[in-house]
């Protein structure tokens, strides 16, 4: 990428860090249009769109991410963000597929394992339990992972595991 594109991208990222999503979008949108093959730019556009939180933004962000994944099915950023959006939309099965892809690409991603657990909690609680165990093993400071592990372990009758997880959560 030309240095001026990198500079503009960095400026937009700075706006996102200050929660100035409209300003970030005003930069990311023309960059994404001018460089459609730059998938990181497309993902940045989706992230700024998602964070703006106006009517239709989540759907628009998901559409951008789906287009990225159509071109690169192993784009881990697009997989993670689209999984998050699918969870928010209540499409847990598709979200679970996305987060499984994330942890297949990066087995040490505690947050990937955590969100894989969330996506499986309702229909596959045993899978969720394993995912939460994986999440806290990879990131022992992931407090919400300990909490959810305790909750799902209790639901499955694993009382000792539940108690240990909830004690860790409470520390």
Question: Can you describe what's shown?
Answer:
By secondary structure, this protein is mainly α. It contains ten helices and no strands. It has helices spanning 3-17, 21-34, 39-52, 57-71, 76-88, 92-105, 110-120, 125-138, 143-155, 159-170. α4 (57-71) packs antiparallel against α5 (76-88). The longest helix is centred in the N-terminal third of the chain and has 15 residues, at 3-17. It starts with a helix and ends with a helix. The model has no long low-confidence stretch (mean pLDDT 97).
List keywords for this structure.
elongated, 171 residues, mainly alpha
What is the helix fraction of residues, given as a range? over 70%
DSSP helical segment count: 10
Mean pLDDT: 97
Q: What is the H/E string?
A: HHHHHHHHHH
- Tell me, briefly, the overall form: elongated
First and last CA, distance = 47 Å
List how many beta strands DSSP finds: 0
The biggest sheet, with number of strands, parallel, antiparallel or mixed sense and barrel status, is: none
- The Cα radius of gyration reads 18 Å
- Fraction in beta strands: under 5%
Residue stretches low in confidence (pLDDT < 50, at least 5 long) are none
Structural class: mainly alpha
Write the layout of secondary structure elements.
Layout: H1 3-17, H2 21-34, H3 39-52, H4 57-71, H5 76-88, H6 92-105, H7 110-120, H8 125-138, H9 143-155, H10 159-170
Short précis:
The protein has helices at 3-17, 21-34, 39-52, 57-71, 76-88, 92-105, 110-120, 125-138, 143-155, 159-170.
